[in-house]
Amino acid sequence: MFRLDTILEHWAEIYKPLSHNPEHRNTFFRVSEITGQSRFIRNFTVQPSPCMAYLAHIDAEVAPQNYRQVSYRHTVYFLVRQMNEKGKTDLTDEDAAADARYSTDEMAQALLSMLHALVQTAATGTLPAEAAKLPASHRDFILRTALDDSASRTALRGLRLTEAHWGTMPVQFNGWQVCGMTIEQIAPRNLCINPEDYTQE
Question: Nearest-CA neighbor of 44 among 62, 29, 57, 32?
Answer without folding.
Answer: 29
